[in-house]
Amino acid sequence: MASENSKVERITHVIFDMDGLLLDTEKFYTEVQEIILARYNKTFDWSLKSKMMGKKAIEAARVFVEETGIGDSLTAEDFLIEREDMLQSMFPTSEVMPGASRLIRHLHSHGIAICVATGSHRRHFELKTERHGELFSLMHHVVNGDDPEVKQGKPSPDIFLAAAKRFEGGPVDPHKILVFEDAPSGVLAAKNAGMSVVMVPDPRLDKSFHDTADQVLSSLLDFEPSDWGLPAFENSAS
């Protein structure tokens, strides 16, 4: 836990997930999936959403068609093609989540190395961050879900281990890295990589998924860097 001195003194690097954590993009996936399922007289619920969140696109698509029972009518691949058309127009409207800009700028200004590790493919990342280029330019690097080094999506640790390698002087000891995540699969991936993880889940997510994280917050606005031995905020303004 964050209260253990041995842990809080050793955090030197921070890795951020993106979707639902830094950018409010999860709602787009939900909206599109509700539209598609309505054709089959089915509804999209949060138990299914939680199984899809944070995974690579094709892995999430397989969960979607299998769990909803529409696999005979719609393949995972066809689902992705259909979903893509709708998402392309939504992604550039992505908004930054509360507290994300403040935290990124704070860590960057204090010389804490930060990066993004997202299951999003590079082309989706570009669309989602179109209006937020300056903020994301503060990241030391970005690892995407279609990166050749990411053989398996979350909850496998591949993406976080790849991210740890690319910091200056890397690979960084996993015990020195703090990960921010919103998705259960991402929290597991961080723990599987041997890293500490702060979870900022959607309030609709079942609370049983909270147990794996080292700390659970309702918003990035609630994060206190000093809890983890990181430089404290100069003031409380967001």
Short description:
Helices cover 37% and strands 11% of the residues. It has helices spanning 5-8, 26-38, 46-52, 57-68, 76-90, 100-109, 122-128, 133-136, 158-165, 184-192, and strands at 13-16, 113-118, 141-144, 177-181, 196-199, 215-216. It has a six-stranded parallel beta sheet, sandwiched between helices.
Describe this structure in words.
By secondary structure, the protein is of the alpha/beta class. It has 2 domains: 5-24 and 94-228, Rossmann fold (3-Layer(aba) Sandwich), CATH 3.40.50; 26-93, Putative phosphatase, domain 2 (DNA polymerase, domain 1, Orthogonal Bundle), CATH 1.10.150. The chain has 10 helices and 6 strands. It has helices at residues 5-8, 26-38, 46-52, 57-68, 76-90, 100-109, 122-128, 133-136, 158-165, 184-192; strands at 13-16, 113-118, 141-144, 177-181, 196-199, 215-216. A 6-stranded parallel sheet has the order 3-2-1-4-5-6, sandwiched between helices. Helix 2 (26-38) crosses helix 5 and helix 4 (57-68) crosses helix 5 (76-90). The longest helix is centred in the middle third of the chain and has 15 residues, at 76-90. The protein starts with a helix and ends in a 22-residue tail after the last strand.
Topology order in helix (H) and strand (E) letters: HEHHHHHEHHEHEHEE
Rg calc? 18 Å
- Overall CATH class of the largest domain: Alpha Beta
What structural class results from the helix and strand content? Answer: alpha/beta
Number of strands: 6
Largest sheet: 6 strands, parallel
Full CATH superfamily name of the largest domain: HAD superfamily/HAD-like
Q: What is the molecular shape?
A: globular
> How many domains make up the coordinates?
2
